[in-house]
Amino acid sequence: MRASRRGVLALLAAPGVARAQGVEGWPSRPVQVIVPIAAGGPTDVIGRILAQHLPPILGQSFVVDNRGGAGGQIGMRMAAAAAPDGYTMLIGNTGSVAINPVYQANAGYEAGDYAYASTLMVAPVSLVVRADLPVRDVAGLVEHIRRSRGRFAFASSGQGQSPDIATRLFLKQAGVEAEIASYRGAAPAVTDLLGGVVGAMFDSTTSVPHVREGRLRAIALANPQRSAVMPGVPTMAEQGFSGFDVSSWYVAMLPKGTPGPILERLSGAIGTVMARPDVGTQLERLNAEPLHSSPQEAQRFVLAQVEHWRGVLRALDLRAE
Questions:
Q1: Rounded to the nearest 5°, which phi and psi values hold at 6?
Q2: In this predicted structure, what is the pLDDT of residue 70?
Q3: Could you give phi then psi for residue 11, rounded to 5 degrees?
Q4: 111 occurs within a structural domain
Q5: What does the alpha-carbon distance between residue 140 and residue 63 come to, in Å, rounded to a whole number?
Q6: 276, 209: one domain
Q7: Per-residue pLDDT, 319
Q8: 87 and 72 inside one domain
Q9: How far apart are CA 213 and CA 263, in angstroms?
């Protein structure tokens, strides 16, 4: 399966969820929203959007709890161990859900340890560099890295996250070596990129405002097709890196065993949030778009993505260091 935006949309283009029945008592108290990545990144952004807009629909507060670290593993394990009563929701992404359990030898969880309420959004991954770096395309970056003789550093939003795997895939295909500095999320990684601590990174949404302001430069997209939001940025494949296909998607999850009616009601509420024009505008500014689905569709999508990334990592012989 190709992890492209087109494939994601096709897989999820099914009728909306049915109205849930029999869960009038839920929620009767605040719901914890675990974000397994540091504040400020796309996983945190979508979590806070839901925490802002779900309470008026469901009648209870949704409280964001950032549990970053180990590429999302800390928060993922915490959510897997929570009671399946509908009061713990987790915001997962490509790396934490589909890549880490395959990439890491001892992740401590797998995709089957969760129930799924809905997919949330999808965003292309772009290769960005500091604006003062004398690099305009991927070939120029490869040459710059070669001239640096091992002194060039990439930022990573966390080991096992999709931008991290994109970095390792790029270095392997380019045949060059560089340091990979792993952060607790995209926000601190972008901060150090802006500050000159590192020279480049793959990122989905956090760097987009800085690219528009001219402080960073996007030189390639990791997706197979160009983005309608960044039409002038060529893909990695267009620049000689065939088969480069990395996107970032986000999903609302709960502990395995959470009752189906709760999942359905939550999915319906999420659909209402993601259909809001102001939410669509907010995501568009981040180069992302809403991607609501039923619980069944979300589960099928995630399990298919796990198998996709299992094949990618096996073919590249990529394992955690």
A1: -60, -45
A2: 80
A3: -65, -30
A4: yes
A5: 45
A6: no
A7: 72
A8: yes
A9: 40
Q: What pLDDT is recorded for position 2? A: 43
Regions of the chain short of the pLDDT cut 50: 1-4, 10, 13-22
Determine the structural domain holding residue 198 and report its residue range: 126-239
The answer to whether residues 218 and 263 belong to one domain is no
Query: What CATH number is attached to the domain comprising 17?
Result: 3.40.190.150
Please check whether residue 24 lies inside any domain of the structure.
yes
Q: Is the peptide bond before 27 cis (omega within 30 degrees of 0)?
A: yes
Do 9 and 117 sit in the same domain of this protein?
A: yes
The pair phi, psi for residue 114, each rounded to 5°, is -130, 160
For 62, the token pair is 């949704």
Q: How many CA atoms lie within 13 A of 100 on its CB side?
A: 26
Q: The dihedral of CA 7, 13, 14, 20: what is its sign?
A: positive
Torsion sign (Cα): 84, 88, 93, 95: negative
- Tokens 């305009």, residue? 136
Examine residue 321 and state whether it is found in any structural domain, yes or no: no
Cα gap 126→106, rounded to integer Å: 29
Three state DSSP letters for the chain: CCCCHHHHHHHHCCCCCCCCCCCCCCCCCCEEEEECCCCCCHHHHHHHHHHHHHHHHHCCCEEEEECCCHHHHHHHHHHHCCCCCCCEEEEEEHHHHHHHHHHCCCCCCCHHHEEEEEEEEEEECEEEEECCCCCCCHHHHHHHHHHHCCCCEEEECCCCCHHHHHHHHHHHHHCCCCEEEECCCHHHHHHHHHCCCCCEEEECCCCHHHHHHCCEEEEEECCCCCCCCCCCCCECHHHCCCCCCCEEEEEEEEECCCCHHHHHHHHHHHHHHHCCHHHHHHHHHCCCEECCCCHHHHHHHHHHHHHHHHHHHHHHCCCCC
The confidence score (pLDDT) of residue 153 equals 97
Place of tokens 């935006």: 5
Do the beta carbons of residue 168 and residue 247 sit within 8 Å? no
Do 221 and 261 fall into the same domain?
Answer: no
pLDDT at 19: 40
Q: Within this chain, do residues 58 and 90 fall inside the same structural domain, yes or no?
A: yes
Q: What pLDDT, on a 0 to 100 scale, did the predictor assign at position 14?
A: 41
